[in-house]
Design a protein that fits this description.
By secondary structure, this protein is mainly alpha-helical. The chain has 14 helices and no strands.
């Protein structure tokens, strides 16, 4: 049963890679054997689309979002767990309730907000990469994830650092972050994947080809009058490589971080 489930799970990826080496007509016929048109598909992709700018835009958005999300979410999760306050749990519960609101319900208010911002600050308004980053810079889930991981953090180490003369910022930077590196790795993978594959909000807020991301480019390829499926599959393979590389590089830390281990 596990072998059958594995075959069913990996077949779409195998078919995607094989299709990237074939012509469009071979893909539509369901050819399952590798072809010899991979280089041709790459050349057609580079000449007919803005592939490199799209990859650069996606990289800028994903890397910036990941870094800012890790900083903000870890600070918030650390603060919610370490410091005691009567209003802390109320604020945290409100954050958790925000997870119940679908993003589709927020698109129109966000678009109107950035539309009004564009008149005063065009650099962070509509059709800018900053407008893609800001609404997704952190999530309630990520804050919850860091807080739950911090529950297993040995509090005695913090007290020892304070006794040795470290400031609160020094305790966070020199003790908390190195100890929670597996949590940071898991959060980085989750955030990067979500940002790299984000489609709906960039589709709404980005209006020029110069600022399009790789999911928008793939979508545009598939919506043409006569789509070239070989080129589309090649673009999907290229779009998948960065996420796959990061996951395989950090998979050990990812598993440890998801299990909440602290070393």
């Amino acid at each position: 049963m596990l072998i059958i489930a594995t075959i069913v799970s990996i077949f779409p990826f195998i078919w995607m890679i094989v299709s990237a080496t074939n012509k469009s007509v071979d893909v539509t016929k369901g050819r399952l054997l590798p072809g010899t048109h991979f280089v041709e598909n790459i050349q057609n992709l580079l000449t007919s689309t803005e592939l490199i700018p799209a990859l650069i835009n996606s990289a800028k958005i994903s890397i910036t979002t990941t870094i800012l999300s890790l900083v903000i979410a870890s600070l918030a999760g650390y603060g919610f767990e370490i410091y005691q306050s009567k209003a802390k749990d109320i604020v945290f519960n409100v954050l958790l309730l925000s997870m119940m609101i679908p993003f589709a319900a927020l698109m129109v208010p966000l678009f109107k907000m950035f539309g009004s911002i564009s008149q005063t600050f065009p650099l962070i308004g509509i059709d800018t990469l900053v407008a893609v980053i800001l609404p997704t810079v952190t999530t309630a889930f990520l804050i919850f994830f860091f807080r739950q991981s911090t529950k297993m953090f040995p509090k005695d180490i913090l007290e020892a650092g304070r006794i040795d003369g470290l400031t609160e910022l020094g305790v966070f930077l020199r003790i908390y972050i190195p100890t929670m590196k597996t949590t940071y790795a898991a959060a980085a993978i989750i955030t990067f994947m979500a940002s790299w594959n984000n489609y709906l909000w960039p589709l709404v807020i980005l209006q020029s080809l110069e600022n399009q991301t790789i999911p928008l480019l793939v979508s545009n390829l598939g919506s043409s009058y006569s789509p070239d499926y070989g080129v589309i599959m090649t673009a999907i393979v290229i779009a998948t490589l960065p996420v796959a590389a990061i996951f395989f590089l950090l998979q050990k830390h990812f598993v440890a971080g998801m299990m909440g281990s602290v070393k």
